[in-house]
Write a structure and sequence with these properties.
single chain; 8 strands; about 240 residues; 6 helices; 3-stranded antiparallel beta sheet
Length: about 240
């Protein structure tokens, strides 16, 4: 067990509401968009074009199935890893569940939790007043630094330069946590498990890079709300 289950902070409940269009949160009476909703709506034109081209190659039905399977596998993997941190088992005997179990165990066996020195909370609900909300996997001290730790599953290898939005997501959660609880989190840790058995860790802890992703996140928030005001969507 890595954590006794007692949060370091008195985390505020932020109920989630999901529709086909977007995911929102009820943040103490404010209906706020999720971090993932904002990121999805503000993808750059190149990323949006690549996604559209992939869907065309695969066909809509197959693309939807691949997306849904990945989402389900990721959800199960998260539960297993969170259970490991809490010292509680989680088992899913479906085919996707067994895949997810193996992928979660690969992260554990690779020792990627060894640098996790302190856990503030798991599945932590967060919001930044008036702007956005979301839930982060783990908040704690990793390699001596207050950090946002996020788990990802992948069908194939992801180069570090391809995962900018993962670090933007970490910045978003860090900003919200710092605002609500007076912390000074400026580190993001991404733990990725591939279907083929490989695992890897990417860390964003350099001040210049953190500022870069923070600037990117603020620009994405601005773009999202301008879209909402004008009624436009990402091209």
């Amino acid at each position: 067990m890595l954590w006794d289950g007692k949060p370091k902070f008195n985390y505020i409940k932020v109920p989630r509401k999901t529709t086909k269009e977007k995911r929102t949160y009820d943040a103490e009476g404010e209906d706020l968009p999720s971090v993932t909703t904002i990121l999805s709506a503000t993808k750059d034109a190149e990323a949006a074009a690549k996604l559209a081209a992939w869907r065309q190659r695969e066909g809509e039905k197959k693309a939807d199935q691949i997306r849904d399977d990945a989402a389900a596998r990721g959800t199960i993997m998260h539960r297993i890893l969170e259970g490991h941190i809490k010292g509680a088992g989680h088992m899913d005997l479906t085919n996707l569940g067994q895949e997810a179990g193996t992928m979660a165990q690969n992260i554990i066996d690779a020792g990627l939790f060894k640098p996790l020195e302190e856990v503030y909370g798991v599945e932590v609900p967060l919001y930044y007043p008036g702007l956005y909300a979301g839930t982060t996997d783990v908040v704690g001290v990793y390699n001596g630094r207050e950090s946002i730790i996020d788990f990802k599953q992948s069908n194939k290898y992801k180069k570090r330069e391809w995962i900018g939005d993962y670090f933007v997501q970490c910045v978003a959660y860090a900003m919200a946590h710092n605002e609500l609880y007076g912390t000074n989190i400026q580190t993001g840790v991404i733990l990725i498990s591939e279907k083929n058995g490989k695992v890897y860790r990417y860390t964003c802890d350099m001040a210049d890079e953190w500022r870069h992703f923070k600037k990117e996140w603020l620009m994405r928030i601005d773009k999202y709300y301008k879209q909402q005001e004008s009624g436009t969507k990402n091209p």
